[in-house]
């Protein structure tokens, strides 16, 4: 599977968005109900949620570096951030039970239209 194939590109960007987005969602759960002090922050470093979220987020960073080595930043950044925004917004709704507005749903739809426009403009 070459780096120019659509399947490779979709899988690469989705793996970035999922690992980074899920990492942030898990990190958020480790901070729920915690008063933000230096001591409470240091105590978070030893929780399974923090460690798991940090590892996923770090994997996302590694995938991001791979993306940057293959694609132009002007193409990669909007696609990656649109996917990241969509995953974190939907994950916040389904996993963290946060509310989302119709405006946010519209924003996700616009993101996907933007991804299509960027992808097919090359």
Structural class designation: mainly alpha
N-to-C order of helices and strands = HHHHH
Taking pLDDT < 50 over at least 5 consecutive residues as the criterion, the unreliable ranges are: none
Major beta-sheet overview: none
Average per-residue pLDDT, rounded, comes to: 90
Terminal residue distance: 19 Å
Q: How many alpha or pi helices? A: 5
Helix content: over 70%
Radius of gyration: 16 Å
> So what's the overall shape?
globular
The total domain count is 1
Strand proportion, as a percent range, falls in under 5%
Beta strand count: 0
Highlighted features:
single chain, 122 residues, mainly alpha, globular
Report on the structure:
With 122 residues, the protein is mainly alpha-helical. It has one domain (6-120). Helices cover 80% and strands 0% of the residues. The chain has five helices and no strands. The protein has helices at residues 6-31, 38-44, 48-70, 73-94, 102-120. Helix 1 runs antiparallel to helix 3 and helix 1 packs across helix 4. It starts with 5 loop residues before the first helix and ends with a helix. 22% of the residues are buried. The model has no long low-confidence stretch (mean pLDDT 90).
Question: What is the topology?
Answer:
Layout: H1 6-31, H2 38-44, H3 48-70, H4 73-94, H5 102-120
Helix pairs in contact: 1-3, 1-4, 4-5
């Amino acid at each position: 599977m070459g780096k120019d194939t659509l399947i490779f590109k979709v899988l690469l960007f989705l793996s970035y968005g999922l690992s980074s987005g899920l990492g942030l969602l898990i990190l958020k759960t480790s901070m729920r109900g915690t008063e933000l002090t230096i001591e409470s922050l240091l105590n978070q470093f030893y929780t399974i949620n923090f460690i798991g979220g940090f590892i996923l987020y770090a994997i996302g960073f590694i995938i991001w570096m791979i993306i940057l080595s293959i694609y132009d930043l002007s193409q990669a950044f909007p696609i990656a951030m649109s996917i990241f925004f969509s995953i974190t917004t939907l994950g916040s709704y389904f996993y963290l039970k946060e509310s989302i507005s119709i405006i946010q749903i519209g924003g996700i739809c616009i993101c996907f239209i933007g991804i299509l426009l960027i992808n097919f403009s090359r």
